[in-house]
Amino acid sequence: MDYDFKYADLMNDDVFKLVFGQESSKDVMIEFLNQVINDRQITDLEFFDKEMQPIERRNKTSVYDMFCKTDDGSRIIIEVQRRKQQFFPERALYYSTFQIQRQVEAGAKEYDFLPVYVISLLEFGLDRNVGSPDVKTVYRLYEENSHELLTDRLTMIFIELNKFNKRQEELDGNILEGMYFCFKHMAHLNGQPEALRHKVFRKIFEVSE
Questions:
Q1: What band does 2 get if pLDDT is binned at 50, 70 and 90?
Q2: What pTM, to 2 d.p., does this model score?
Q3: What does the pLDDT look like over 67-90, one tens digit per residue?
Q4: How many CB atoms lie within 10 A of CB 28?
Q5: What are the angstrom distances between the C-alpha of 7 and each of 56, 192, 204, 205, 209?
Q6: Residue 95 contacts by C-beta under 8 Å, 6 or more apart in sequence?
Q7: What is the pLDDT, as a whole number, of residue 137?
Q8: What b/e readout covers 142-168, taking b as 16+ CB neighbours within 10 angstroms?
Q9: Which DSSP category does 26 fall into?
């Protein structure tokens, strides 16, 4: 069978899991997470079951595109979403509660759970971010007036790829921007751009080919 493209689309759920969610390409996911998450350095990961059952049967289940734990125990949920969904931020928040609840055992006197991150790769813009040029936005729990951080145990990161408009010739070696470019344009490329010569891109192109 002949195909009219050289590389698979990274924003396809199955391709994303193949490129970023295999043991053999764990280093690719670690590099991506360290570029996106700024408050910790990740050195290792474990991949886990992506379906979470609610405490009550009548409530919605949670099926993540990818779920992993870092070497320090932090939980990371990753979602890839192509079509606009009206309540997507609320969906991301709902997903986070599964990993919070499962860290607190029944009868426990303390609520000292490890940090939970929800990272959403989107091909559309969030309504609340209209007018902002930022591709990546980070939401945490802050006090309204002082902006003092209440807790570091919940972080939601949204990456709106529709706002990334750099052309291939404008790439300058920045790893995160290079990944944005790959997410957005991989299926339309005929070869690996010269600006994307970091070792992590070599594996991304090899697997997606």
A1: low
A2: 0.89
A3: 999 999 999 999 999 999 889 999
A4: 21
A5: 42, 10, 10, 7, 4
A6: 52, 62, 64, 77, 79, 118
A7: 97
A8: eeeeeeeeeeebbbbbbbbbebbebee
A9: H
**Cα–Cα distance, 193 to 205 (Å, whole number):** 10
Q: For residue 45, what are the β-bridge partners?
A: 70
Neighbour tally for 91: CB within 10 Å: 17
Q: Are 121 and 162 in contact (CB under 8 A)?
A: no
Neighbours of 186 (CB within 10 A): 22
* Residues 179, 35 contacting (CB under 8 angstroms): yes
- Pairwise CA distance, residues 69 & 45, whole Å: 6
Whose tokens are 């049967």? That residue is: 57
The confidence band for 108, taking pLDDT boundaries of 50, 70 and 90, is low
